[in-house]
Amino acid sequence: MEQALIVHFARVVFFLIFLAAAPAGAAVLAAYTVLGPDGAVARAVIDDAACPAIEIDGRGLTMQVRVAADARFPLVCEAALPPAASTARIGAMALPLPKPEVRRIALFGDSGCRVDRNTFQSCNDPAVWPFARTSAAAAALVPDLVIHVGDYYYRERPCPAGNSGCAGTPSGDDWLAWQADFFIPARPLLAAAPWVVVRGNHENCDRGGTGFFRLLDPRPYPATCPDVSAIYRVMAGALSLYVLDSGEASDTLTSGDLVERYRTQFAALRPSPGGWLLTHRPLWGVVRVGAAIGLSLLVNGNATLQEATRNALPAGLEMVVSGHVHLFEALGFADRRPPQLILGTAGSALDQEIATDLVGRAIGGTTIAYGRTLHAFGVTTMERSGQGWAATLRDEEGRPRFTCTVADRAVSCAP
């Protein structure tokens, strides 16, 4: 009974927060811009029976229904934004529009508060779950683009009775959990810039897939939740981003039809020079596992994707950007395949720290030529640097920790 009252109180609090943040009389629960294969899409979550008007360059039109409201989610509306649009707003809420030149990108993944299986993160403590701080710090850096590499939704189970750290949190793939995990803490960053969204394994169909395809995926709403959706390209200024749905790609198994399905996607990929591959699960990455049973094993990358690509990506790709591992990692390779960045630092409970020097470690048919890891929360900003990119890892307040240069299929960090 006490737990039920706490949950009810939390729902009331979340509702009041949105009422306070929304324009007077508005029924807009969230408004944001996502980039997809066909350009920019304005998206709005509406506590009403009809879609609102959107004003684009002074011209008003009614947004279209993406998905009707049901018992779990409010109405979701959308409108395609013309490439040349200079302003867009829903009521008093201005929407961020794509920039013709992308100078600064904010990147991270694995942002939700982990209340799943046997992990109960203290969602009520901003020092333990800092995503709201990370989001606000990233917004203050005024990025032109935000890239989230997956795992938005983590509140899969009710908080156990007596656990004050997560007491009152909503749970389940519905709007209350999605607003608590993502839309409330991400609000300042959703208002700051358009987003490129990558599906994570926590958005698989048996977890948070319904919410992901209703709320975030930039493509037309699918009739049924796909276990693997098609790879697509996003143009961000002159930068080509290739978004791979790797949520179902097993980290350990190489059997079954998934390998062939991913192999087919990679075989059809013809990336532009300088393109990035965005995939939640890293092809090559190191994670320490086994602490719960007294072991300390280092595990290398994703077996399914390594088998599908045979560890050779199509020419043109400059780097691979991923999450899934809840650490920062920058890896360069002896055979000069594209460097791998892992940015699972937004707020979900961190993985075990890696104190081992990774240089010389065998991985995916080569060895690691350069490796830098950090066990810390934060956001990474990317900015052009000569012929490459400067990736600066920042803490939850936006303060720089160190900068890595990614150029000519190599990576190095300083200090």
Description:
The chain has 415 residues and is an alpha+beta fold. The strands form six sheets. The chain has an eight-stranded mixed sheet, with no helix packed on it. The protein has helices at residues 2-21, 131-140, 175-183, 187-192, 209-215, 257-267, 303-309, and strands at residues 28-36, 39-46, 53-56, 59-62, 64-67, 75-81, 88-90, 93-94, 104-108, 115-116, 119-120, 145-148, 195-197, 232-236, 239-244, 275-279, 286-289, 297-300, 317-322, 328-333, 340-343, 362-363, 366-374, 379-385, 388-394, 400-407, 410-414. It has two domains: 25-94; 104-414, Purple Acid Phosphatase, chain A, domain 2 (4-Layer Sandwich). 46% of the residues are buried. The chain has seven helices and 27 strands.
Question: Summarize this, please?
Answer:
This protein has 7 helices and 27 strands. It has an 8-stranded mixed sheet with strand order 14-15-16-19-21-20-23-22, with no helix packed on it. A 7-stranded mixed sheet has the order 13-12-9-24-25-26-27. The chain has a 4-stranded antiparallel sheet with strand order 1-2-6-5. The chain has 415 residues and is of the alpha+beta class.
Q: Structural class per helix/strand content? A: alpha+beta
Can you say what the CATH homologous superfamily of the largest domain is?
Metallo-dependent phosphatases
**Strand segment count:** 27
**Low-confidence parts, pLDDT < 50 over ≥5 residues?**
1-26
First-last Cα distance: 54 Å
How many domain units?
Answer: 2
Number of helices: 7
Beta-strand percentage range:
25-35%
| Sheet with most strands: strand arrangement | 14-15-16-19-21-20-23-22
CATH class of the largest domain: Alpha Beta
Shape: globular
- Biggest sheet overview: 8 strands, mixed
CATH architecture of the largest domain: 4-Layer Sandwich
Helix content: 10-25%
